[in-house]
Design a protein that fits this description.
The chain is of the alpha/beta class and 555 residues long. It has eleven helices and 25 strands. A hairpin with a 2-residue loop joins strand 6 and strand 7. The relative contact order is 0.05.
Length: 555
């Protein structure tokens, strides 16, 4: 039988702790390296910025790993990939941005390629000739984040310049372009930042950016006008030439100013809307709150145009509002018709200070008083309208209002509106009528000359001239030889006379010559005879009868 074993005889188990295995020292270095790598990755993930894509029409000079994105000349990103996109029509550039620039990536942020550009406004991007092209960025104002963008084809005119933008409305941009200068009293204070066609096609909206601190000069009363090129106008007032600068002549520009008659006001708000006028004259023109309209029937409309001045005693007091024709209901004939606008306040402005109140009272008087004043001017003082030449070179004319005391009283319908102003001839029209009269007289004289028998008179005159020619030729043939002989004889006679005179000089000048003694005696006798003759003439003057009776005994 097998032996039985009791529980006490069984061996007792003991619990011993397991032995720890030591890591070999050779594994320490890889573990440290792995820890460092993990830390670098974590740090890179924490500091790495977002990745964006930008679509360009052409990626000129853009290379992966070499081209940077710069803002304020600081690198904030780098191009990591360049590839074609959208059916090979565009270029997609992938950019790794710095984490610090993540706040710039919003919806209205703009990108473009900075490269050398030469325009009429100047030369930009010269620094890229050495460093290469880079991508510029203009941060937007939106708060919505975005990572996919479409780049601009050309750089924006304004990047980070402080200032404010304003909207100018015009029918067309003219010669203006983005980057065109903006002037205030001939100082460049801004530039054109954008041109956009309106949705309805009725015109364009021009964005004008004014730098600080000049933006404070733009108020609600500011006027903008197109300063492009040379403002050249030749009107009835003469020749006017205006320009801002050589740049505005070549590239266009806009100028603005506040009219002198405008009241002071606060600076305009951002994106305030203004009208872009065609030129400075129309922009700075003072509005006339009171306007009176009159009609003038002239003989001719030649040289007259809308806007031509209306002058009272040489002072511009209105303008031509319309030029056209009217049909006479009685004669069915067309008559030239002028509609003029008269601004009485312009005349009040020319009065002396002590008369200004009286002038204002006349201007703001009622309709009856105004009509009475006009009637007095026309009927009593002889106010008449004349069409005069303002520029002989262009032939433009203007309307002159002058007083003619000798003018007859006109027949005017004072209930007509607008009122008709009487016209008197004068100026160039008067000269033309006088010239026409002179030409008519000249025509009459020419007609009488045409009635003369000029052909027969011409034949007779020709015959007479031929006869005279024959006589002269005969005289030349017969008379000239005899005349030559006569001249020869005369020459011999003069020679003999010269010899006689020489002999006479010798005889007379020699004091002891017999001739001189005889001559002296003859002179004595002649003196005595002259004395006797004088005595005889005195006697006959006293006794004229002695010629008949003879000398009496008592005499």
């Amino acid at each position: 039988m097998p032996e039985t074993t009791t529980i006490e005889e069984l061996p007792q188990a003991s619990l011993e702790p397991p032995r720890r295995k030591r890591l070999p020292i050779v594994w320490i270095i890889p573990l440290v390296a792995a820890a460092v790598a993990i830390g670098i990755v974590i740090q890179r993930i924490r500091t790495e910025g977002p990745t964006i894509t930008v679509l360009f029409q052409a990626a000129s000079g853009v290379q992966a790993g070499k081209t940077f994105v710069k803002y304020k000349e600081v690198d904030i990103g780098q191009v990591t990939d360049v590839e074609l996109a959208e059916g090979f029509s565009k270029v997609q550039v992938t950019v790794k941005m710095d984490r610090s620039a993540a706040g710039l990536l919003v919806e209205d942020t703009r990108f473009w390629i900075v490269e050398p550009r030469v325009t009429l406004q100047g030369v930009t991007g010269l620094g890229t000739l050495l460093s290469g092209n880079y991508i510029g960025i203009k941060p937007g104002e939106s708060t919505k984040e975005r990572h996919h963008f479409v780049a601009l084809d050309t750089p924006p005119a304004i990047t980070d310049q402080p200032g404010r933008s304003f909207v100018l409305k015009a029918p067309d941009p003219g010669s203006l372009a983005i980057g065109a200068p903006l002037y205030f009293r001939r100082f460049k204070v801004g530039e054109i930042a954008g041109l956009e066609l309106r949705a309805d096609g009725s015109g364009v909206d021009i964005t004008a950016f004014v730098y600080e601190p000049y933006d404070k000069y733009v108020t609600a009363e500011t006027r903008f006008w197109d300063a492009s090129g040379i403002d050249f106008s030749l009107t009835a007032d003469g020749l006017e030439i205006r320009t801002q600068s050589l740049v505005s002549v070549l590239a266009g520009g806009v100028a603005f100013d506040v009219p002198t008659f405008a009241s002071p006001s606060e600076p305009a708000e951002e994106n305030a809307v203004f009208t872009l006028f065609h030129n400075q004259a129309s922009a700075m023109k003072q509005p006339d709150p009171i306007a009176r309209r009159y009609v003038i029937y002239a003989d001719s409309l030649q040289g007259l145009q809308i806007g031509a001045p209306v002058k009272l005693l040489g002072i511009t007091a209105g303008e031509v509002a319309d030029v056209g024709l009217t049909l006479d209901p009685k004669t069915r004939a067309f008559r030239p018709r002028l509609l003029i606008t008269f601004f009485p306040e312009r005349l009040v402005a020319q009065l002396s200070p002590d008369q200004e109140a009286t002038g204002q009272a006349l201007v703001r008087a009622g309709e009856e008083e105004r009509l009475a004043l006009v009637r007095h001017q026309i009927e009593d003082l002889g106010l008449r309208a004349q069409l005069r030449s303002g520029n002989l070179l262009t032939g433009e004319r203007y309307v002159a209002l002058e007083y003619d005391p000798k003018a007859p009283k006109p027949d005017i319908d004072w209930s007509q509106d607008p009122l008709e102003l009487p016209v008197s001839p004068g100026g160039l029209a008067d000269l033309e009528s006088r010239a026409s009269g002179i030409l008519e007289q000249v025509s009459e004289i020419l007609a009488k000359v045409d009635g003369l028998p000029l052909e027969s008179i011409g034949k007779e005159l020709d015959s007479a001239l031929k006869g005279l020619d024959r006589v002269l030729k005969g005289a030349d043939a017969k008379t000239l030889p005899a005349l030559d002989k006569t001249m020869a004889s005369l020459r011999d006679t003069l020679t003999v006379a010269r010899r006689v005179l020489e002999d006479t000089d010798e005889s007379l000048l020699n004091g002891g010559s017999a001739t001189q003694q005889e001559l002296r005696a003859a002179l004595i006798e002649i003196t005595r005879a002259a004395r006797a003759v004088r005595v005889l003439s005195d006697y006959l003057e006293r006794n004229p009868e002695a010629l008949i009776r003879g000398k009496g005994r008592g005499n």
